[in-house]
Write a structure and sequence with these properties.
335 residues; alpha/beta; 10 helices; 36% helix; 24% strand
Length: 335
């Protein structure tokens, strides 16, 4: 995660890509990760591959579900947090969002932080990124919106992207408790990478889900409408679309589990029967009940997350916590 990623700036005037080009290095990386993951004793697929165009659309629907408390809780907190940031960080002129998605949460910051002149969202889905950045550009005409297509877990050379040598005062933004999808080791690596991207002395505002009862957690990842199930199963559909994988989707079912020892929710795709799937000429056998582990969502206490951030070279400056300890937002400063 320490190498500079091959990120690229795209113009807001670009035509959104309506079909995905699968014959490229990204496809090769997907194939390598799939073959490696399905070869493990506990089969797994990286959660970053959820977010193709279809997956991004489904995740937007998940965020609107009554069971999915993280989004609405964080959004409700952001006005108050943004108002506080106006005085805490009066000199910030640039916001960099890691994994920007639909760019809606950053609007809360932009409304309150009047000195911000540039917004750089980093996302892997060019179509999704351009669509939402064009909307944001129309809403904030004085804001310089610079979409960056790339993997936010890699270091991005912002000076090269922006074409400037002087480092502005930056605020990184990483909402949605996406940090929870990473293992502790991966989270530390990402936080170190984010510090490299943003620069020494700059800040990161990060949303973090809190540890709570499984009675609250499980429904948030296994909703009654089956949207989360469709989101999880879309990962297999993506393998069909992009890799020509031979998979009977109906032979798998979505399952959310709480791993108490690790303090996390896990999402799995469980084989309904004994079966075989094929990817790029490789055969993978499944027993009935065997699963593919597709996602983790780690939950943190306030103190636990601040300790994690400190291991990555950040200092926890402020923490905001929602009622009933449902969610937390932290302001970190890079050393």
């Amino acid at each position: 995660m320490t190498d500079d990623c091959v990120a690229r700036k795209v113009s807001l005037q670009s035509e959104p890509v309506v079909t995905e080009d699968y014959d490229d290095p990204a496809r090769d990386a997907l194939l390598a990760d799939v073959l490696d993951g399905l070869s493990q004793a506990q089969k797994r697929l990286p959660s970053k591959y959820f977010y193709d165009r279809r997956g991004s659309e489904l995740f937007e629907k998940i965020c609107e579900l009554p069971e999915y408390y993280p989004t609405r809780t964080e959004v409700a907190m952001l006005d108050g947090v943004a108002e506080a940031l106006k005085s805490l960080l009066p000199d910030v002129t640039e916001i960099v969002e890691f994994g920007s998605g639909n760019c809606t949460k950053v609007e809360k910051l932009l409304k309150h932080m009047g000195k911000v002149r540039r917004y750089l969202p980093i996302d892997v889905s060019e179509t999704f990124l351009l669509h939402h950045c064009q909307r944001l550009d129309a809403r904030f005409p004085k804001l310089d919106v610079v979409p960056v297509v790339g993997d936010f877990t890699d270091t991005v050379d912002l000076a090269a992207v922006e074409g400037q040598t002087r480092q502005p005062k930056r605020l990184g933004f990483f909402p949605g408790s996406t940090i929870g999808n990473l293992t502790h080791e991966e989270a530390i690596a990402f936080l170190k990478t984010a510090a490299e991207t943003l620069g020494s002395g700059n800040y990161l505002l990060i949303g973090v889900d809190t540890l709570k009862s499984p009675d609250v957690l499980i429904p948030a990842y296994d909703d009654a409408q089956g949207i989360t199930a469709a989101f999880n199963l879309n990962l297999l559909e993506r393998l069909q679309r992009e890799l020509g994988a031979e998979i009977e989707i109906d032979n798998f079912s979505h399952e959310a589990r709480f791993n108490e020892e690790e303090g996390r929710i896990e999402m799995h795709l469980v084989s309904r029967c004994e079966q075989t799937i094929r990817v790029a000429g490789k055969t993978f056998n499944f027993q009935a009940g065997e699963s593919i582990h597709t996602e983790n969502s780690h939950k943190y206490s306030i103190e636990g997350f601040c300790r994690l951030a400190e291991q990555a070279g950040w200092r926890c400056e402020n923490s905001w916590v929602a009622d009933e300890q449902l969610f937390s937002i932290h302001l970190l400063q890079a050393s």
